[in-house]
Write a structure and sequence with these properties.
Blueprint: H1 2-11, H2 31-36, H3 42-46, H4 49-66, H5 68-74, E1 78-79, E2 82-83, H6 86-96, H7 98-106, H8 121-127
Antiparallel strand pairs: 1-2
Length: 145
């Protein structure tokens, strides 16, 4: 449910979607993120649903690793009337990047990043709260295969 809701929120679930800022695919990745995983051809990425799903998984695994301490420290707390959950943190990292989520959590909500459409970290913390991501393994180094 988590990834389907996130994919729907990002692109209405469309693998071929490219927004006006150049974010692409079902989960709206930018080219810099794709390059980090060794993907340089955006046309191939847009046309390969399996590749998009694989990139989504390894990105979640990487964000879970980067945010592992913050997940441990903040899950169950309430910040600005929002109960913090692991799935909310991971979704917020997809929106804003793990570093911005750390800043948000460690500032107790004072530093709330918004994207170009006005969606902010708190929106994702709320919308994606309560999903079970226990089966997703946190990975420091992800292998793209």
């Amino acid at each position: 449910g988590f990834k389907e809701l996130l994919g729907f929120k990002e692109s209405s679930g469309r693998y071929n979607r490219v927004n006006k800022f150049g974010f692409m695919g079902k989960y709206q990745f930018n080219l810099n993120t794709l390059k980090m995983y060794g993907i340089k051809n955006s046309k191939n990425f847009i046309n390969d649903a399996k590749l998009q799903e694989r990139v989504f998984l390894i990105n979640v695994q990487r964000n879970k690793w980067i945010l592992r301490r913050d997940i441990k420290w903040f899950v169950g707390t309430i910040i600005n009337e929002t109960k913090i959950s692991e799935s909310g943190i991971i979704a917020a990292a997809h929106l804003a990047g793990a570093g911005n989520v750390k800043k948000y959590l460690r500032s107790w909500g004072d530093l709330n990043f918004s994207d170009a459409y006005g969606t902010d970290i708190e929106d994702y913390l709320t919308k994606f709260s309560g999903f079970d991501l226990a089966e997703v393994t946190a990975r420091k180094k992800v292998q793209f295969q």
